[in-house]
Design a protein that fits this description.
This protein is mostly helical. The protein contains one helix and no strands. It starts with a helix and ends with a helix. Residues 1-20 are annotated as: Disordered.
Length: 80
């Protein structure tokens, strides 16, 4: 009977170790998935930032053009 309990205990330990290993593997997969999502979000934010920088540069260029046009009109009015 003692041998039978020892055998059951060994089987339980094997099962427990296998479950621990499976759990650790699943946790690694989840961590990897979370890291991929984080990287994608960072990349998306960086791309949005670049797009906004380009748009801001275009806006500034347009503002400079409009200001130059207004100055030309102002100068033309002053000459008349």
């Amino acid at each position: 009977m003692l041998e039978e309990h020892k055998k059951e205990l060994k089987e339980f330990k094997k099962d427990s170790d296998a479950e621990k290993k499976a759990f650790k593997q699943e946790m690694k997969q989840l961590e990897s998935g979370i890291q991929r999502i984080n990287n994608m979000m960072i990349e998306e934010r960086e791309q949005e930032s670049k797009t906004l920088d380009v748009e801001l540069g275009e806006y500034r260029g347009e503002m400079k053009r409009v200001m130059a046009e207004m100055q030309q009109l102002s100068n033309a009015v002053e000459k008349e």
